[in-house]
Amino acid sequence: MTEEFWRWTESRWTSPDIDWKSGDIITAGCDVGSVSTQAVVMVDGQLYCYANMRTGSDSPDSAMRAINWALEGTGMTLDDIQYSVGTGYGRVNVPFAQRAITEIACHARGANFIYGSTVRTVLDMGGQDCKAIHCDERGKVVSFLMNDKCAAGTGRGMEVFADLLNVPITQIGELSLQVDEEPEPVSSTCVVFAKSEASALLRSGWPKEKVIAAYCSAMAHRVVTLLERIGMEEDFAITGGIAKNIGVVSRLEKELGVKALQTDYDTQLAGAIGAALFAKALVEKQRKGK
Amino acid sequence: MIANYGYKDGSGEYFISIDTDKCDGCGDCVGACPYGVLITGEDPNDPFREEPVAMVSEDHRKKIKYSCAPCKPVSDRPPLPCVAACGSGAIEHSW
Ligand code: SF4
Ligand code: SF4
After folding, report:
1. Which ipTM was obtained for this model?
2. How many CB pairs under 8 A join A and B?
3. pTM of the predicted protein model
4. What confidence score (pLDDT) does residue A194 get?
5. Residues of B in contact with A230 (CB under 8 A)
6. Which residues of B sit within 8 Å Cβ distance of A?
7. Structural domains of chain A, count
8. Do residues A234 and A121 make contact, with C-beta atoms less than 8 angstroms apart?
9. Is residue A188 situated within a structural domain?
10. What CATH number did the domain enclosing A30 receive?
11. What is the DSSP string of A171-210?
């Protein structure tokens, strides 16, 4: 079998510190994106377990596989979860969810959890699109902008690019920094055009690192123009898979003149965490209503 | 919340912004828009909002430059029907 360079590591995790059986409110969030799917379970608003995997050919199946993997070995079953919220591109196709909430709301809420209440600007760089969100200290959306038109310069684009250059996707960022001099960004971040442009650059003798650098910087630049319209207010945080790409993030920081907050959390989890927190708030609201 | 719908491309920035705090979901803009660009419904970005809110329909988000073009002649542009219809001043266009 040939190596699949686009492939990132799927993962799952269970918190060693939480006994879910003594929890009061158990909720789940499931973010079905075009590229990746995450399922998280939260016990009283604390992250208990999660799974992060690639989205399969259909959303309901991807959602089920993710939650089943997240629950693996925990002794918990779907019946123990009181409320689930679906989010992401496939949010209406999460079979176990009672409600769907947009990624915009969930990423803001999730970023607030992951990075803390000082976050005011969230950039979600996902598989298929990119969104800029302003939020308040509770993680509530104040304004947002998403580029509805072009799906370029996103996680999927990066996967295609990794494959084209035969470079593992997790190494793209590092490699892109191994250039003596920053090349001009490629003119297009569109998946299709960038691919032919990159091939042409390789043929003309550019080393891989330089082509990658040019692509990362094009991607960073494109996102900066999104932020220009909505404005930058610190603290600034990035969610989604591209947040793990140091090549894009460092160029973005440089162009914006601000540093993004750091976290030990998997940044791809933000949407699912936000969804699970909304689920908790909805349970609380139901209880109050009774 | 300021909800920006639209895109930026090589020719410019095309965004319709709805101030959801000003919008009460009355639907007057929906009736005024000749091309079905605007709709009202449950706020997809605020799960706790009770009243409906205006938004740009999914179908038009990727092409509002063209959808709204008939309302925007190059010279002598009349007030935009949607903006004129909204008594609370919740709608803005970036172009
Ligand atoms: S400018 Fe015209 S087409 Fe565009 S939203 Fe307003 S009324 Fe509808
Ligand atoms: S007319 Fe104004 S207040 Fe009424 S639904 Fe449209 S945007 Fe909202």
Report:
1. 0.89
2. 55
3. 0.89
4. 66
5. 4
6. 1-9, 13, 15, 44-48, 61-62, 94
7. 2
8. yes
9. yes
10. 3.30.420.40
11. GHHHHHT--SSPPPPPS---HHHHHHHHHHHHHTT--HHH
